[in-house]
Design goal:
The complex is a heterodimer.
Chain A: H1 6-18, E1 23-39, E2 42-60, E3 63-69, H2 74-90, H3 124-139, E4 145-164, E5 169-187, E6 190-193, E7 196-200, H4 209-221, E8 232-238, H5 240-253, H6 256-260, E9 281-284, E10 305-310, E11 313-314, H7 321-327, E12 335-336, E13 344-345, E14 350-352, H8 359-364, E15 368-376, E16 386-397, E17 400-413, H9 414-419, E18 421-424, E19 434-435, E20 439-447
Parallel strand pairs in A: 8-15, 14-19
Antiparallel strand pairs in A: 1-2, 1-4, 2-3, 4-5, 5-6, 5-7, 8-20, 9-10, 9-14, 10-11, 12-13, 15-16, 16-17, 17-20, 18-20
Helix pairs in contact in A: 3-4
Chain B: H1 3-6, H2 8-15, H3 20-30, E1 37-53, E2 56-74, E3 77-83, H4 88-99, H5 135-152, E4 156-174, E5 179-196, E6 201-210, H6 215-218, H7 222-238, E7 245-252, H8 259-266, H9 271-275, E8 296-299, E9 320-325, E10 328-329, H10 336-342, E11 350-351, E12 360-361, E13 365-368, H11 375-380, E14 384-396, E15 402-414, E16 417-422, E17 425-430, H12 431-434, E18 438-441, E19 446-447, E20 453-456, E21 459-462, E22 464-467, E23 470-478
Parallel strand pairs in B: 7-14, 13-22
Antiparallel strand pairs in B: 1-2, 1-4, 2-3, 4-5, 5-6, 7-23, 8-9, 8-13, 9-10, 11-12, 14-15, 15-16, 15-17, 17-23, 18-23, 19-22, 20-21
Helix pairs in contact in B: 3-4, 5-7
Classes of the chains: A alpha+beta, B alpha+beta.
Chain lengths: 449, 482
Amino acid sequence: MAAVDIELANWALDEARRKGASAAEVLCVSAESLSAGVRMGEVEKLKSSRERRLGLRVFCGQSSATSSTAELERDSLADFIANTVELARLSAADPWAGLPDPSMHPKSLPELSLADPDSGIVGADRALEIARSAENAALKFDPRMKNSEGAEFSSGRGQILFANSQGFSGEYSGTSYTLVVQPIAQDGDTMQQGFWYTSNRRLSKLEDAESVGITAAKRAIRRLGARKIKTMRAPIVFDPDMAAGLIRSIAGAASGTSLYKGASFLVGQLGNPIAAPGVTIVDDALIPGGLGSKPFDGEGLPTSRRKVVDKGVLASYLLDCYSARKLGLAPTGNAGRSVGEAPGVSTTNLYLEPGSYTPAQIIGSVRQGLYLTETIGFGVNLVTGDYSRGAGGIWIENGELAYPVNEITIAGNLKEMIAAVEMIGNDLNWRSSTVAPTIKIAEMTIAGA
Amino acid sequence: MSNELVAPDKFFLNRFGMNNGALERILGAALERKADYADLYFEYRSAEGLGLEESMVNHTSKSVSQGVGVRVCAEDRTGYAYSDEVTIDRMRLAAEAARAIADQRGTTAAAVQVGAPVARHALYDLDSTPLQVPVQERARLLSEIDRVVRASDPRVKNVMASFACEQKIVMIVNSDGQIAADVQPLCRLNVTVIADDGKGRQVGSYGGGGRVEWNYFIENDRWREYALEAARQAIVNLDAVDAPAGEMIVVLGPGWPGILLHEAIGHGLEGDFNRKGVSAFANRIGQKVASELCTVIDDGTIPNRRGSLNVDDEGTPTSRTVLIEKGILRGYLQDRMNARLMKMAPTGNGRRESFAHSPMPRMTNTFMLNGESTPEEIMKSVKNGLYAVSFGGGQVDITNGKFVFSASEAYLIEDGRVTRPVKGATLIGNGPDVLTRVSMVGNNLALDSGVGNCGKDGQTVPVGVGLPTIRIDGITVGGTRA
């Protein structure tokens, strides 16, 4: 079986040119993983995987096609490349299509410590032990912890190789470790799930398994006895995960792909104040060991640290080459890529810069409002900014967390919501590639009974 | 039709140089530590996509994937290993990885004898698939859609259209010696329109498809209907006022609003959640969970539908399952493992996204049967309420039963008449409770146009939904107008 290496990549690029392509890119991905799950203390599942795929983008002048295959023998690959070139000839000549300006490719790549030097794939026995210890901690935390959707530990190792016909090539590999726990609290007829996780590129930096389990249990228990509240307008405190979801939406609206299609509420807003003055949103690809870090982007351009929103002002869009050309701007190194897809805009490590308030101070500032800990559904319209989502959390009364609420919605418009960010917490924690501290939004509509 | 489509089981045996003896040895290896069940899932998928934006068909793509998944089940344990290198050596390694789970807990010894292919439905034996239609012809249709939409209204600012088609060839061989194989075509045409009237900007989307031939989109001008419907939605929403907030009477239109059933009922009735007792519907078979006007079905056997399958991804022929009959909970959706553990029959609902995933109970086409009211009677019966006709996505928390679905086209009902359009809003309810509030069911059942995808545990599979017009007496509408 053919190995995925630079020799194969270069051969594929040459083959594309022999078949008539004027330019081409090759992306090779290979990955291995093992995940192990327990439920109610018993082994429930083991999953082991191996994958390697090759993706192509070929140009015939301004016409292009993308393709991917797992058949890597040169004979079948040669046919596949010929078919891709043929497909490219059939697509419309697009004046904005093409590889990056060759002078923009980096001469050297940063070392970002994306792979754990001490650990590879964690074996099944050890993985099961970690999952079991997390679930066990959750189940014994409280007598109401009576059921479980299980706990799962997974580890993976992957390698990415990218090369294009104008001489750029680069590769990097990374590891990732994730522990997820989903215990269930039960009180009478009602059940509530708790969910918590830890994820890191280094095994030793994961949050302790027992503490992940206990957090999941606490999150399940605090939802028990949830009620519906009356429809009203009130302040909403977004917990860090919920605030991260909000900045992910802002980044989606700042993505070049949405903007050039006119499918964003941020069209024409570059340089304008769009958020409260305390809001600074950063996309930083260069954080050593970051879950979203990468040394070059999906088109072989250098990645960077960039403020998307700077003190409330929309400072930069997020752009790949295509959307940059459409908008008359320079690409920002935010081309994301998956095998077989054309490049598209993606964030790397995206975060909201922390403020000075403790979460307790933020909650304490609310006389009556919602501490938002979960949303459900997809009710965010990036074209208009309209926002309406199912919600759950804890009701705040006189600055104290009083009782859980669910089966309600929160609604507003993203433009107004980000302008109404009144307080920003100091509790930024890198649990994912998109993170934010606790924030408070002055007022939104809550629909309930 | 090429030969490989006639005998999909031969396709794999020829392609990877395998025979029944080799399959028996790999299944034997999978069962070596004693398990209850093992299966091999072979998949070869080819797909092509075309996309138009700004009046250019500038996106073309093609992919080929293949692989094999080996699964070993022992009691309630599952070991799964997959590889995209389909060789005897790789499969043996996968079998060794998967069987680590078994731990001598099962009942089946290692001898397996592979028999003849099992019977399957013939729900989509096509003369040709859209993959065989010249790319130029598919591209021409997208350009025609662009022209028709732009000519329909000066407020149309942008049109995006795409056509995706795929063909999966699958073969499942299990430790009972059964072998099942299928060829599964699937395609979808989508149109998204952005409209701008100088004061605001709105988006509309529509599309359809299924396990159908290219001509499906041409006959009756279906493509034109999709195109104009997307434009109409975008333009209607330009005049939308803020949606109301709070609990109110909601009338759902026919077809795609059946997503209500998928979220509120369907997921909660999947066998795995009920075996584990983590669903709000656990242990409720025989109980009243809906008004007696409601009969809800999951049917994987409707010809050419997006959610239909000849056999599920464990080789079981799909079936029609009554979930709720006149308000009473009757059945769960089962795959083999959960059916065995719950001592029930498999229902042909064991599905997986690809060879990289282990199967689990999933819906196929889920819908409510007709009632006796006319849509006009239902509308006239409402003094103040919301009429929701088109939806984006939905989601459910199966443990506490809370579900949402988000309206993308909705209107106020005032004095029995549909009046102003309102902005999109999320509706939230409680699964075990919402259908008890259904007070009228229309006689106009429609299935959706064939665009649905369902996600569960990181796996996406195509599904369908359907609904007649229904009236729900009280569900929370998440608008901004408090």
